[in-house]
Amino acid sequence: xxxxxxxxxxLLKNGLLTVHPSLxxxxxxxxxxxxxxxxxxxxxxxxxxxxxxxxxxxxxxxxFGSTCxxxxxxxxxxxxxxxxxxxKVGNTVAIDCYREGVRAIENLENLIKDLKLACxxxxxxxxxxxxxxxxxxxxxxxxxxxxxxxxxxNFLTKESIQNKYKASAEAGILSTSxxxxxxxxxxxxxxxICVDRFDLKxxxxxxLEEVVYKAGNHTAKVGGEFNIHFKVILYATGYESQAxxxxxxxxxxxxxxxxxxxxxxLPKYLKDTIFWDTQDPYLYMRTTEDNRVLxxxxxxxxxxxxxxxxxxxxxxxxxxxxxxxxxxxxxxIPDFSxxxxxxxxxxxxxxxxxxxxxxxxxxxLGFGGxxxxxxxxxxxxxxxxxxxxxxxxxxxxxxxx
Length: 401
Ligand SMILES: Cc1cc2nc3c(=O)[nH]c(=O)nc-3n(C[C@H](O)[C@H](O)[C@H](O)COP(=O)(O)OP(=O)(O)OC[C@H]3O[C@@H](n4cnc5c(N)ncnc54)[C@H](O)[C@@H]3O)c2cc1C
Prior knowledge:
Layout: H1 9-14, E1 27-34, H2 38-49, E2 54-57, E3 73-75, H3 82-89, H4 91-115, E4 122-130, H5 136-148, E5 153-157, H6 158-165, E6 171-180, H7 183-198, E7 201-203, E8 208-212, E9 218-222, E10 226-235, E11 251-260, H8 268-271, E12 273-277, E13 284-287, E14 293-301, H9 305-310, H10 312-326, E15 334-344, E16 351-354, E17 361-365, H11 371-387, H12 392-396
Parallel strand pairs: 1-2, 1-10, 2-7, 4-12, 10-17
Antiparallel strand pairs: 3-6, 4-6, 5-6, 8-9, 9-10, 11-14, 11-15, 12-13, 13-14, 16-17
Helix pairs in contact: 2-7, 2-11, 3-4, 4-11
């Protein structure tokens, strides 16, 4: 499946950062990671730290799947508001998942600082905007749910939003925990560190076609003619993972994004904040290091890549209109627009952990609008699972929950 349209901003900005050979011989490893997006890179790093001998393969170039299409806002907030997530999965799990999101952003920040990665990571506040007064009741309930859970939130009135952000909204929940990143650059840089420090072997343009399980010697058949013998396989195959799982675990959605030309005097309140709103589908917005405004939304059910991509121009106009309604004083000139496909689950939580129907098989599928935060959470979950340590998130994020 074509998971995204061709010209995403991050690809155009960064170009092809690293290239790798395709696999041309039989080989073996402890851990085989399938998928070289941001999730595969995080897993490779964690497995390297944990001392495993790792091979990573991708059927495309590195980070050419959803990772290079992502608007890459980092949020602890899940698509499902906390108060309604509690109804779906219970108080403890819902609050735990929200709090773990805050920690995941901190963990990612520490990793980026420790490794000195230049990947556009910026700490930001996150402002959730109430767009229609008819949603007032549940929005207030959401604020109280988050406050009671000890999450870092403040309630903003219509007037304070108008004064500080020049935005047209009925109210807002401001969180101090948020960030933005260039996920494409991050993925390449982290994988380079894995190659240098842990001797990670990367093969791109190498498709996983079949896995043959045999006690003590599992084999991945790749690229038509070669075998990789492995002990454990980690699927970081993003939204195409449905192909490997017999039961449908997610619905696919087409989503759209555009980035503006750089804005000469971009106000600080826009630079320091990521925004999303209560419309359905919601509008989301951040700025980039080079002072562009990056806007996403206009989601609709995915039918096929051709239809998705034919709509890019129309969706761009729609997003510009929505942005003008939210920020009437902001004048943006679009530079690049693109489309991608992402998956949503019934409770907006990811699937991360062992797949019990197959031996030594694990998935790290960070579905939803904050897939990257989930992928960061996946590092500890998978590390614990491989080492035989218990981790409560394995239960929260398990298949068949
Ligand atoms: C437009 C858009 C905006 C988004 N905005 C945000 C956001 O603001 N914040 C956020 O957190 N998330 C966002 N997301 C989601 C986020 O981008 C994803 O969660 C993240 O990129 C997933 O990374 P991944 O590595 O799991 O998947 P991918 O980047 O898709 O990587 C999976 C890789 O697996 C490879 N693969 C698949 N099958 C095989 C096979 N059989 N053999 C070999 N290789 C295979 C693919 O080629 C691919 O490179 C957005 C997504 C889109 C499309």
